[in-house]
Amino acid sequence: MDPPGEGESHPGPVGAAGTSDFEYLLPPGRIARYPAARRADSRLMVLRRSTSEVEHRRFRELPELVAPGDLMVVNDTRVFPARLRGRKPTGAAGEVLLLRPVAGGDGTTWEALVRPGRKLKPGRVMDVAPELSVRIVDARPDGRRIVRLEGDLTVGKALERFGEVPLPPYLDREPEPGDRHRYQTVYARHAGSVAAPTAGLHFTHGLLAEIAARGASRCAITLHVGTATFRPVEVDDPAHHVMDAEYYTVPESAAEAY
User: Fold this and answer.
1) pLDDT one-digit tens code per residue, 119-135
2) Is the dihedral of CA 113, 119, 122, 128 positive or negative?
3) What is the pTM of this model?
4) How far, in Å, CA of 111 to CA of 114, rounded?
5) Residue 45 · residue 61 · CB < 8 Å
6) In whole angstroms, what is the distance from residue 190 CA to residue 199 CA?
């Protein structure tokens, strides 16, 4: 597992495409705010490498494109209810987005984003519920906070009861109870992401069984998706776009399968 570190940028090849080359008009009405009623009914674009032909199909047709001996690598990270809303002693609303536990801690101390940042300073407390408060312990130069969860419940039970799934901002809606199930892959195992690996949301257990029946194998790695996935690219040269480090695990079995 790689430790978190400072983001880096690397020079790209000469003549590489710039961000502006990929600009296009996306009407807000074309952004799906809710998933398809059935996961596998989502649309699927297929590019034939041999002919550069593009096909528009449905995700449920994916098994037809799989050949015996193919290996499918999935990301088994699990989105956890990382967003906590509460109020300061003054009554003003506040919000904390947990990112990851502080290394070497007891699980109650986390790196987090807070809002409003100018109000939630070290020493301040945000009350989420009678059983849970969030204390701001420290402030980092990048604006993030170190926070401590305080209360009678274990961290797991507190997040399960009071946490919300942090939906992508472009969905432009409040979380709903069904999001805990639908904003999760069917093979999610290891909690740690604040965003789902969205390409995997369309798989179903039945679809995975069909793929296996066609002679393909499957292995899993874990990459915990961080908030940088929502960060817009604001430079024209993608090589200068700085990303945050993310945790990942590649099991020996997955490396051997690959």
Assistant:
1) 899 999 999 999 999 99
2) negative
3) 0.84
4) 10
5) no
6) 17
